[in-house]
Amino acid sequence: MSFLQAPHRLRLVGTIVLLAGLLAAIAAYSLAEEADRADAIGYRIVNGQVYAVSAAEEPRRTQELERIGGKGEVWIYHFDHWLGLLWHGKRLAGTLGLTSLAIALLCFHFAGLMDGDAAEAATGSGPRHPDAPTARPTQARRCRGPRLRRKAHREGSRCRLSR
Length: 163
Known about the structure:
This protein has 163 residues and is mainly alpha-helical. Helix content is 60%, strand content 12%. It has helices at 6-31, 59-85, 90-123, 146-155, and strands at 40-46, 49-54, 140-142, 158-160. The model has no long low-confidence stretch (mean pLDDT 79).
């Protein structure tokens, strides 16, 4: 039964992962509330709008981290904070969608590679050993000079003498 072969199963797994991930992303996006950030340490009011201030945006915190650990410590802190935000709210939906898309594309790619290997095995074509003799066309070509004649001889082609 051809459905039970590995490339078909891998394509089926990729399709299931893609559909489940996109459905989970849609559910996460629709259920996410437009609430204040969970890591807010304070609020700023600008032109009547209230904005949450996180610890990563606090200038004193950033200066203190830079003084203690240098610029690298600040970058690591900001990266860790950004990575933590990917798992909350509406950003979680994007994370789920992109992750499921990436896994599905990998499944489809590997299934295509498996199909290519099966086709090569069936036709007998495929990578050859470097020392295996190859059938080269023996076209006569014009060879001027001893260097080109030696090269043609090494490649197995014939030289046509130029007059």
